[in-house]
Exodeoxyribonuclease III (Nesterenkonia sphaerica), 267 residues
Amino acid sequence: MRIATWNVNSMRARADRVEAWLEKSDVDVLAIQETKCKDENFPWELFERNGYEVAHFGFSQWNGVAIASRVGLTEVERAFPDQPAFGKNGKDPVEEARAIGATCNGVRLWSLYVPNGRSRHDEHMEYKLRWLRQLREHAQSWLAEDPHAQIALAGDWNIAPEDDDVWDIDFFERNQLTHVTAAEREAFQEFVQAGFTDVVRPHTPGPGVYTFWEYTSLRFQKRQGMRIDCHLASPALAARVRHAYVDKDERRGKGASDHAPVVIELS
DNA sequence: ATGGTAGCCGCGCTA
């Protein structure tokens, strides 16, 4: 079985690319982030005609997550329990479409779009850390309930766990950028301490292996990327991972998302 | 060249 995660940066703008990639990659399950649409604008037929069931969670033009599967899609859950909400200046906090879970052929998969954080001292950064802490507490409890559960936490983590996961750590520190701070990395490591491992990195050793390249400053052309998309697997699932890869080719050419798909292959 | 792209219920906001 093959499972992929991909921040498509608009499902409608990327529809042709996604369809072509499903055929090319032959994945069984795809966790999608940043669909940037609500249900009524989601291209349901695209998945149906390619043999995938699909569940989508989107409120507006922001965020939006989905799971497509051709090996079953049950127990769909939109948002995790007590998922933190966000409101600017602390006002009118609303829950955002950043997490959807489903069971696909025995694997409990979550498609996650972790809040960006925006800047080091922004209230959005506090939201990001709160959001991660809440998710981690639940993930921990799922594993405590069933230590043999096959759980994949897949998506755009918006965190570069190690210095090698960005093109120039000095640039990030000099400019006080996000995704690399101690607080963000600690939040990520708490998942690892809870028993979830990054099953992609061992198969895609760095430096220089990235999943995201900013459109601005033409970072892809300059080979200046970040590795912020990955799959964190529970012990039982991690034991099944045979291979993993980043499909960097998908970032090339006109009409590419700023993220590349990340695939894991299970026994 | 002190920058600059891409997407959206767009003429600002998010990334």
Q: What stands out?
A: Chain A has a mean pLDDT of 97. Chain A has six helices and twelve strands. The longest strand of chain A covers residues 107-113. Helices of chain A lie at 15-25, 44-48, 123-145, 169-174, 182-193, 235-238.
